[in-house]
Amino acid sequence: MNEKGQNRTWLLRGVRDGVPIALGYFAVAFALGIAAKRIGMSAFQAAAMSALMLASAGQYAALTVIAGGGGYLQMAVTTFIVNLRYLLMSCALSQKVDVDMKLRHRFLMSYAVTDEIFGLAMSAEGRLNPFYQYGAALIAAPGWTAGAFLGAGAGAILPVRVSNALSVALYGMFLAIIIPAGKKNKIVAGIVLCSMLCSFLLTRLPVVRGLSSGMQIIVLTVLIAGAAAWLFPVKEEAKGGDEIVS
Amino acid sequence: MSHSIAGYLLVAAASIYLIRALPMTLIRRDIRNPFIRSFLHYVPYVTLSVMTFPAILSATGSLASAWAGFAAGAALAYLDGNLFRVALGACLAVYLAEWLLI
User: Fold this and answer.
1) Any chain A CB within 8 A of the CB of B49?
2) Residue A54 maps to a domain
3) ipTM of the predicted structure?
4) Within a domain: residue A61?
5) What is the pLDDT, as a whole number, of residue B2?
6) DSSP code of B10?
7) CB within 8 Å of A236: residues ≥ 6 apart
8) Range of the domain at B22
9) What is the DSSP letter of A2?
10) Nearest to B3 among A71, A91, A191 (CB)
11) Domain that holds residue A140
């Protein structure tokens, strides 16, 4: 297959795999839209925020800053800290793409570094074709934006049971990425269990309980992935195609 | 100093884009250091696990329906592994559980 044909295949594959992301995003963004409306934002502003940021926890944090009347500096710092995990994901993603990939692809791909799209991208075999990420973003970002628009504009049109059910779609996706990987590799299985246990403990134990969820993710990611890298270094693969799900 | 919504949104958008774009554009070669390679290899699993649990337990209307969704999602992920089917199965489990319980 020529390069164009391959890009097309990856784009379509990305759209297909992005459907559950878009569904989950729609439900989460809907709730986000309601929250934006509550602090006085219009449906268009809520939609613009979602289209520009494409981040759940990050947008909640931004809404808090707006509601509290914080300054632009506070907005910049809060956004930076709450979303610091994207810095780690972007580092990992930089190793997943072809070394020679064009700069414009790097700029475009960066827009769609979200938890879910990142998870999807890293689960692709071998080097990542940027069009896979574009496909997922092409369906997920409109779902995210439309959800926020409707949430702010129309409030509760979805029955509670439906929106409750939709809100686990994202977690289902996460499970579909981490559990099969754990099934194939015992170290990854141990890491998954340990991570869940630690994150459960962080929400229960005194003192650390006060950490924001964004901060918890950063702390646990650095500590657990760091310990795993020290204890179980990944063996160098002969070829460039380093498989994250091995 | 007054702050407009548009101003807030631009600042937030610029800040989040920088976080995402800096590593992608600045790290232009394969990292050779085995520790960093291994660390980045493990990052997605830790991050996704930490975000899933226990957050999933408070995502729905009741603890029981959340557990139903978690259990169904985990079982389907183990047996099947298809993203769409796992996500859908978890949603259906929550819907059924809430329908039965509430």
Assistant:
1) yes
2) yes
3) 0.86
4) yes
5) 66
6) H
7) B34, B37
8) 5-101
9) -
10) A71
11) 3-168
